[in-house]
Write a structure and sequence with these properties.
By secondary structure, the chain is an alpha+beta fold. The protein has three helices and nine strands.
Length: 211
Amino acid sequence: MGGLDALGRRLSYANVTATVALFVALDGASYAAMRLPEHSVGSRQLQRGAVGVSALGFPIGAKGLTDDKRQTLAKLEGCNAPLSPNAPPGAEVHCPLLLPYPVGPGRALTFHMTRPGEVLISSVVALQNPGPVGTSAEISAGALLDGAPVSSSNVTLPGRSQTTVPIERVVAAAAGKHLVKVWVDGRYNDYAGGQVVDSPVTVSVTVLPGF
């Protein structure tokens, strides 16, 4: 018992605290790797409302769509393509508004922000050019948020080829309802041949964590 009494006299709060801290430091990795049994934490262990989006401190939301409908970028001589060699000299061409050409159904996405924050707007536009080899088109694709440009990409698409155009940008958005649209436009380098088709088109909006 004398030995235990001497040990007890040498122990202090500082000794015990230092020993516990050393144990945690040395064995922390093993502790962190420990796994809880399945279903060991559930509604009985967590108080109602204890963990949720507001408790984590940031709202997370995502919304997306995929439009598989084929849309064709019309080729109009003298507007977005050269005139035919047979066109009379000084031929007057009346061009409709082409920049950008109308967004079809399914290419617009609405979302709602409960409070101001940042959102990631992403889109992937698949393009095919069925025109003959040796022809090409300069294609632009972009996104609009509430009518304002978000981001755009440009690509040269030769005939008999296909590609995908990614569009991505983080932007600020106020609280309330918003509308994202994806557009495609282009200029052909030849008067004849195929017309570019865009399909499918994906659009997504992700609300980013706010800290």
